Amino acid sequence: MESRVAIVGIIVENRDSVEALNEILHEYASHIIGRMGIPYKQKNVSIISVVLDAPQDIISALSGKIGKLKGISSKTLFANV
């Protein structure tokens, strides 16, 4: 299956869901190129970007699992390469 490059932007508003989020990201660690997290204390949120190189169904599965977590929003953007 052909792999795609994508970035998943994640905003964490509920810190109680962070452990579940980290478990999901660990599950897909072999597809993650890099990850950056920024705490934004003034707004009491954290912003995380995750860059992946994986088949589209794997990226969609990861994004879907993240989207089910309470207090966490995510969007996925695919590269054209």
Describe the 3D structure.
- With 81 residues, the protein is an alpha+beta fold.
- It contains 2 helices and 4 strands.
- It has helices at residues 18-27, 56-67; strands at 3-12, 32-40, 45-55, 72-78.
- A 4-stranded antiparallel β-sheet has the order 2-3-1-4, covered by helices on one side.
- A hairpin with a 4-residue loop joins strand 2 (32-40) and strand 3.
- The longest helix has 12 residues, at 56-67.
- The radius of gyration is 12 Å and the shape is globular.
- The protein starts with a strand and ends with a strand.
Mean pLDDT: 96
Which secondary-structure class do the elements indicate?
alpha+beta
What is the assembly state of the chains in this entry?
Answer: single chain
Helix content: 25-40%
Rg, rounded, reads 12 Å
Order of SSEs: EHEEHE
Q: Shape from CA axes?
A: globular
Give me the side-by-side strand order of the main sheet. 2-3-1-4
Low-confidence stretches: none
Let me know the largest β-sheet.
4 strands, antiparallel
Determine the number of helices (DSSP H or I, runs of at least 4 residues). 2
Number of strands: 4
How is this structure best summarized?
Helix content is 27%, strand content 46%.
Task: List its salient traits.
single chain; about 80 residues; alpha+beta; four-stranded antiparallel β-sheet; 4 strands; about 25% helix; about 45% strand
